[in-house]
């Protein structure tokens, strides 16, 4: 699966031959782990032979501006410099990893790499859209490629603190500090720039898309890509809104409201505006949505979480879609239809694009097997094209 050129096709997926058998989730941080995803999809980072390992760069000066992780440590990113035809092109990948919506879950999170740079890997493999190999990543292999680490728990959008719990909710500041540091390292001279992200990072790429555009002169070609960031305000199997309840806690706890798009908050409540379905149509910058119609994370944690399935009737289905009953498949089909309906207005703009495939998957741009390989998802023998 790949992105060609610097914009492309609009496709709605209807087929997918494989993907998820089961996922596990952290009970406190609502996080999907890359290693778990690899195991669940039957793919592995090992499919990329000796991937490029890129070192962590801490933004030390960010602390003086209050732009810190949950525990007060400095944020960071990984950068591999571009060359040749890609020397003045920049790809920013916003890391994902769920959210924290309560003091308890955020206190737990700050003891992990999702809340503290102390625990971040010092080296990360660059695969998929970040790969430096032309045969694995033909569109972006020689760009300046960056992964901005995620350590705030609110999709890089919070601006608050809880002194009693020693928690800093500074996602917006981390975003700004990261962009400022990268601009000083040459991004300001970019001919073209793409803001991307996976999962919670995919949501962040939507929320910050127009801000990213505003960093550059009008002569710079700027676009955004959201991978698995189209989180839906859906009804769960108990008739409630599990994800809305989670988002309500994130927004109120972390002071997200002030950083949400005004075009949305002027009309809807802040929690509704944290759902991208309510803001994507008003984004001015070209945006491409890459999503699974049967998003594995949303099935697990939004549609059929254990808290909404007290009698356990969805346990087998949520862990393996081959075990779903006819009525359960219909419920999931209705979720797919809701997602497609949510992007109708968005899709009317010729500058936007989307690739919605019928996979049971979550994030498809970071792992080589789902990004660009012999059996990555196709629709009508076409790969996704976005940029």
From TrEMBL:
Subcellular location(s) of the protein: Secreted, Cell wall
Keywords recorded for this protein, A-Z: Cell wall, Cell wall biogenesis/degradation, Hydrolase, Secreted, Signal
Entry's Gene Ontology BP terms: cell wall organization
Alphabetized Pfam families for the sequence: PAE
E.C. number(s) listed in UniProt: 3.1.1.-
GO molecular function: hydrolase activity
Signal peptide: 1-17
Protein origin, superkingdom: Eukaryota
Function: Hydrolyzes acetyl esters in homogalacturonan regions of pectin. In type I primary cell wall, galacturonic acid residues of pectin can be acetylated at the O-2 and O-3 positions. Decreasing the degree of acetylation of pectin gels in vitro alters their physical properties.
Similarity-based family: Belongs to the pectinacetylesterase family.
Name listed for the protein in its UniProt record: Pectin acetylesterase
Annotated source species: Ilex paraguariensis
Source taxonomy: Eukaryota, Viridiplantae, Streptophyta, Embryophyta, Tracheophyta
